[in-house]
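Hi V.,

You were right to ask for the full record rather than a summary. Here it is.
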Amino acid sequence: MASEADVRPFRRDIDAAVSIWLLDLAKQVPKDAQLDGFDISSAHFPPKNELPGNVSLNLLDMMQPIPEHHVGRYDIVHIARIVLYIQKDDPSKLLNQFISLLNNIFRSHDLEVVDFQRKTVGDSMARPWTLMQLMANRDFIENDIVPMCDAGKMPPGSPSADEWREMSKNLILECQNGVKLITDIVYIVARKPTGVN
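Predicted structure:
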């Protein structure tokens, strides 16, 4: 069995705020742990010369086939904020994409859930949470959704770029009139079953 010092974790992050999360993580892992982050847009990536040597940020559309050089490469995959990409209430395509990133040791076994937590945003956080969500949604629409619309990468029947902007504008107006945007935060941690090598 390898000691903790011998393990060279690879982490793959798919997240709209990928760079912030990975830059924080890079301070907590060994310097030779390779941290690869991917997003559908590079709008939020810092300049490459500001990244630690073990962090790389690249473009990837999870709705397209995974490039072969990423298949089976990673020990850990972190995923967040993908709900907009789940089509017809069926996350199986995305989950299969994410699983394909894992190395064969992890892909060859079913995973067991070891922790599941749902954190509710309380009333005291409703206003700041709503303001944060409005800013994030507007930024996401302009920097991620609109470019995908312009490039013809949205699923058939999706709203146009102008329709997305109109929805964002209307959402802001509704929130000014008292609507609150509150979603639970869900954490799921899984691992390969105990006793499986």
